[in-house]
């Protein structure tokens, strides 16, 4: 499979996960890291799409953090 666009590095995903583990000895498999990276990518893309739609609904030419803040509660509920 050929990747297009930005991807999350496994090292970054691993560090993010380990920040929230209570047991520091917890290990994460390569497959789990790859799956988490894909989930993060989907989440970020969906947030961007929803923010663009929100900006369009407000007749704006660009997306600002305000549009992201408006769509974020529903996005978090959907995930």
Automatic annotation (TrEMBL):
It comes from Odocoileus virginianus. Its main location: nucleus. One of its GO terms (cellular component) is FANCM-MHF complex. It is found in: Chromosome, Centromere, Kinetochore; Nucleus. Heterodimer with CENPX, sometimes called MHF; this interaction stabilizes both partners. MHF heterodimers can assemble to form tetrameric structures. MHF also coassemble with CENPT-CENPW heterodimers at centromeres to form the tetrameric CENP-T-W-S-X complex. Forms a discrete complex with FANCM and CENPX, called FANCM-MHF; this interaction, probably mediated by direct binding between CENPS and FANCM, leads to synergistic activation of double-stranded DNA binding and strongly stimulates FANCM-mediated DNA remodeling. InterPro entries: CENP-X. One of its GO terms (molecular function) is DNA binding. This is Centromere protein X. Belongs to the CENP-X/MHF2 family. Pfam families: CENP-X. The keyword DNA damage applies. Keywords: Cell cycle, Cell division, Centromere, Chromosome, DNA damage, DNA repair, DNA-binding, Kinetochore, Mitosis, Nucleus. GO terms for biological process: cell division; DNA repair; kinetochore assembly; replication fork processing; resolution of meiotic recombination intermediates. It comes from the Eukaryota.
């Amino acid at each position: 499979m050929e990747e297009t666009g930005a991807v999350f590095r496994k090292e970054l995903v691993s560090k993010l996960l380990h920040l929230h583990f209570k047991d520091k000895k917890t290990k994460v498999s390569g497959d789990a890291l790859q799956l988490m990276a894909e989930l993060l990518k989907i989440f970020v893309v969906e947030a961007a799409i929803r923010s663009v739609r929100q900006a369009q609904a407000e007749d704006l030419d660009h997306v600002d953090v305000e549009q992201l803040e408006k769509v974020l509660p529903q996005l978090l509920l959907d995930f």
